[in-house]
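Bench notes, bay 3.
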Amino acid sequence: DPERDTRKAAANALTETIEQNSHVANFIFNTLLHEKQTMDRLRHFPSPEAERHLSNEVDEAVVNTVVEVCVNNYDIVADYYRLKQHLLGLDKLTHYDRYAPIIDQRTELSFDDARGIVMDAFGQFSTQLVDIAEPFFSKRWIDAALHTGKQGGAYCMGVTPDLHPYVLMNYTGKPKDVMTLAHELGHGIHDVLASKQNILNYHPVLPMAETASTFGEMLVFDNLQATLSSQQEQLALLCGKIEDTFATVFRQIAMYRFEQSSHRLRREQGEQPSEAYCEVWQNTMQEMFGDSLELGDEHQWWWLYIRHVFQSPFYVYAYAFGELLVLALYAQYQQEGAAFVPRYFDLLSAGGSASPAQLVGDMGFDIADSDFWQGGCDLIRQQLQQAQELASKVG
């Protein structure tokens, strides 16, 4: 919300409700962590994260490299929020200012406009991409209209290899919704291309699941920027894109580190009070922002609403893996142009039939190399520099 008092009131209400339920939620968390410790012992997993790495078909050393590279680039986050503090004209940023809009965006785009922007961007990459995406519109495989009682968010449902996928979203006419449409269509295209695989290899493993969706967003972003009428709106869209990337990359790594510390704390020292996990949460999240933003005392309770840490231990690093992977692939596309396209389609067509290391290796990359992941972070830094340049023009 553009009004800071509204954001603060919402944060207070969230904190109050979470804290009221913290005793029960913390008991559940302790119990789940102890259960996982028991199952890991019985199944001979050497660490709390090992089961997830096996499921993702990724070596622990690779995950550790991704984490290390992200932590070493936390300064990107801090530099961005210093810029945002200037843009918002605030003396200090706190946790309820993180997603405050830079301006009140007024541009509205019809669904037909969004379709045109997305299809034009896809066409610049490959006509094959347009051919795969077109039936989603003409055959009404997309449910984008707003309805009373319809669930929020966006999702692409790939059913089986012999059935087409569906895209479910809520289109409100905002520029960000165009990016959402591109994202979900990317998932759909991935499903269509992977339909040559059998039911067991149809879906890619989690670290590869966001490849086509995030790549689709990257293709559409520049086209969408060109439709906006002012530099202020371009800056607002770019800032939104940067914040989404932070949420997908750096924030997920911070949450992964919170999980690592929490599981080890539970195993080494037994059942813990909620305040102990609150301290771990606050420290691991604050490290990401440095001194650019102060996470207030309320924020220490907010780990209790992160359902992944309860339902899917160590799931979160797959988001960072996928986003940085796509940024590196997109940089390669910018260098190679049309020569990159066939290899990209081969990657998506493979579905889950090979490990991430093999799939990315076929693209000419080594996921064990820290320079590969640094290349993704370098592109995020470039986006920050673009925002800084636009901000200097806006004033």
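Next record in the batch:
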Amino acid sequence: MIEQYLAPINPDKLGYHASGKVTTLGSKINAYIQSMPPMPQNSIVIVGVGEDRGAVCNAGCAEAPDDIRHSLYTLALPCEEAQITDIGNVIQGQYVEDTYCALAEIAAEVMRHGNTLIILGGSQDLTFAAYKGFEQLDRIISIAAIDPCFDLEENDEITSRTWLRNIIMQSPNFLFSHTNVGYQTYYVGQPYIKLMGDLKFDAYSLGEMQHDMDRTEAVIRDSDLVSIDLGAVRQSDAPAHGNPSPHGFYGEELCQIMRYAGLSNKTQCLGVFELNPLYDNRHQTANMVAQALWYFLDGYYNRTDDNPRSHPENCKHFLVPLEDQNIELDFYKSKLSNRWWVRVPCENERLQELYPPEIMLPCTYSDYLQAMKGEIPSEWWKYYSRLNTTV
């Protein structure tokens, strides 16, 4: 029972209210205030994790969950049929590893029943615990990190700067792919950029993503777990961070990214980390995060199952022969959402036990145009190489 790991929410910290004809999230969310609420299958579940012992130069972010709730609960309901359960806050363990174990158990139990989990952190090392939740379900996963850094620093201790390295070191390993969205080169340096390439991980700089949000959508659409370090948002929009940057995504771009995650039928866990109320100015960052989460919910309740594998009748099929490479690429465009996919064959015997013999990789219109010029899209080639060399 996961209830042993959870503490109820203090209603005095919520402060939501109904105003006129506006139905607020707070009036509809089934929250753990007195007794643990049931979790309907295939719904949204929220959990707070006030843990910052793994934070690097950002002590105080453990106080963020209730601050985010205070803003989130006041927003209008995005969908009248929404089913959202808030199961309270994870009880901090004697050691940080105890908190990781508790969150992993909670994540596994929530996702086992088809629910989508929203984690309100806390520091970003909690992404490691979310990964362990997928591991308990024997799920090979893809992670997208909205982060100005790569979090690959060499240290056996799990922190907000080392969680990715510690995931990589797990054996057996359930990480199929990792994509960094919005890194800032002056924080990571060329050696770490090379290391990401050597690991066959994808990394897109802040400038690349801001000029190609379609690519961001495709990356998020292919991610099971999305981890957001609020340090990826510029200081003017998100001052509540111990390591702020004058550059980063705008608040509106974060909302867009969140909606992409909500729209993705694959994304089953979203974590928002590193918000530090000690540095917040009139709840500016908490309000921004709450609004970004609203867009996630809005996307979730507008999901469309238009994957060409499950609903080929909803897609247009484009066959592109690449004569120089002696291959043909199958592209699909959804008639419902205008989203694109490309077929990637899976020849890896281990992965064939978990995946079909071909994968529908989310892609963009620009990938199709590149193929029409006779070139193999770089995203297809990277995915094919990763898919057929993973052991």
